[in-house]
């Protein structure tokens, strides 16, 4: 395979005039509000990125894709692209009916004729497509916990592209890229897929790959959905823009791909290849553990490190792009350059340097030096802006314990101590304050308590995201709700659970508000510790015993914990 045929590929959009008309007509149709992943899928269906698909998979296509990576007509396609919906929505439809597909603001992007409706066997899909029915895999977790229970299939008619307000100049449809390559005379193009910031080793390996393939280079980062916990795409794109300038003039370009990754390893690599073929590329770099999802629930890798390369190689003729294997590049100090690890002959006589992803995160977190040989100063400064050291990041201290355990008093003391130190804004979300300002309509049923705590968690996560300190002090009696709040907050910063472990007997003896007496008399129902349960935290970051310790000392214990975690400078 030498050159790509750069003729336009089919899109699913109707003409501008028809789109205007269809949009008006579609307003009367039953409509489905697409979630973020479905919007990504729809965009690539409509613009030809998922060519030859003409819509969301029919049941026969789905079965073929799941079983043997082939559509019903035999064409290679490794990833199920389904419109998953709720049972309620699916039941209200008749087969053959058209529905409108709307974005999250209600804009109609497309219509779809529903030809198929079925309830998938998700466990089978997980096993066959992702290799295991294990929710440690992000796509399997999505399948079981986010995706609707019914799949709809049928052809899509595109009305308009999803709107993007960010980096508009760097987003290209497959046909726009094909036109660009035609204009530039680029007949051989090697694509580099990435969801991480690029450092010097990546720049070196991509440039070598291009030289090896005698091709130009397309840096083609995913900006749709990547692996939870990845560096956000805004930061990454600013980093890529800095790196693009480091390539020799007119060899390399960058374009952003609004793909929702599944982290499906080998199958995902084949899928990525097909998408790049649609975007006019002739070569594709496949790395070690390409699109790897991390460890499974037993702590092992989901896929072998070279499974993706093996599967890609097997199908590369059908994919229509040639694989360039990724070289593991390391820095050779004596020669002050990057070299492929397996080509270094004098390994024992030279100093080989490398910084792993984990080590990089540690250095960023602790504000340590990141050497020039490893990355570009512009990239490091972008990363430092979004990932400041822990002592400058936001965090949440979450007190939990019985009514009258001393949560509010210790939380107040902690707030004052943190304000004395200065540096970050501090907000106290005390149980009573929250019930007055955020949750005044709620009572104390399990449902209402959960809602109350989730609201606290939402506000705390926003404060944490914006670099502040949130101190929460509700009873928060249920472990599952506390875990959910932890997850919300940990997406942005540290979560420190502090169990104020005053016994129920002591709280009742103190009875500062006289509520225990009323609870014993049955005048207050569902009272925590008396007539409602409290799940004792099993592994809080800190447990404080208040009996025999004064408030100042309890608050100081929290400060020491924060220092130990690197959240406040000692
Ligand atoms: S929860 O369970 O986390 O939603 O509770 P929280 O928002 O912290 O509110 C607890 C305060 O409400 C008063 N109160 C009760 N507590 C527990 N159970 C019942 N049934 C109840 N009814 C009223 C009580 O004063 C709690 O205040 P604190 O500050 O914890 O003493």
TrEMBL record:
It is an enzyme of class 2 (transferase). Residues 393-544 form the APS kinase domain. Its EC number is 2.7.1.25. One of its GO terms (cellular component) is cytoplasm. Keywords: ATP-binding, Kinase, Nucleotide-binding, Nucleotidyltransferase, Phosphoprotein, Transferase. ATP binds at residues 401-408. Belongs to the APS kinase family. This is Adenylyl-sulfate kinase. The lineage of its organism: Bacteria, Pseudomonadati, Pseudomonadota, Alphaproteobacteria, Rhodobacterales.
